[in-house]
Amino acid sequence: MVRFVSPKTLMAVVLAGAVLTGCGNRGGAGDRIPVDNFTAEQIYKRGEYELENSRKPDSAIYYFSEIERLYPYSEWAKRALIMQAYGYHKAKKYEEARGAAQRFIDTYPGDDDAAYAKYLLALSYYDQIDEVGRDQGLTFQALQALRDVIEEYPDSEYARSSILKFDLSFDHLAGKEMEIGRYYLKRGHYAAAINRFRVVVEEFQTTTHTPEALMRLVEAYLALGLTDEAQTAGAILGHNFQSSPFYQDAYNQLRGRGLTATPQGKSWLTDVYRQVIQGKWL
Fold this sequence. Notes:
This protein is mainly alpha-helical. The protein contains 13 helices and no strands.
């Protein structure tokens, strides 16, 4: 007896077979199957499979984008769009990830996944920070995007991670100032070096680079013969970071000149010192 199989059931069987066949491949473009006759749910599941089992997420992105094309404005299209953003990010196609995440935010601003879309948008900047050399434009964009997640979705599961990444991004900016400052200091360009270390002390004082910046200021000011500023920088360092090895280094430099780590004269550093004593600096 021959049993009749409905077209819908047949399509599901074909899709399942395609998925099983795909177990041995790695998501190349040639392995993609035509999906015009499949339901949105079937295409979505295929995309999920590719995302989990392929080395490259390109095929998964293809299937998720096909849902948008075939079933626009559907619930599945909404879910597929956020998965596109995730797939692009996984593929390190950061501009495309930002584009998909932004489209989700613009189209579904009140959706529960809007927080995740904002987080993906921030990650697309954050994960490029180490690639940008001395151009810190992406770091500033990462800071702004992470701030948006923290301020707009403070109770979301992504806020805590965003706070941590914000602090690391902030520290990264300070680190770049230190890198340039050390470059100038090594070559005897003391005024240029001081300007960089001053930025760290005044604008990035909560980062891990502040103790070294103060020690380098002692070194640079001593090289210029500006002992008042050198002693004041040492005093700030001793007040806040006395257990730091950078303080011991600064102390030794000052003592070698017969100087002490006490505030002297009047400069931008004495203003900082007064703020430290009043508890307004840190």
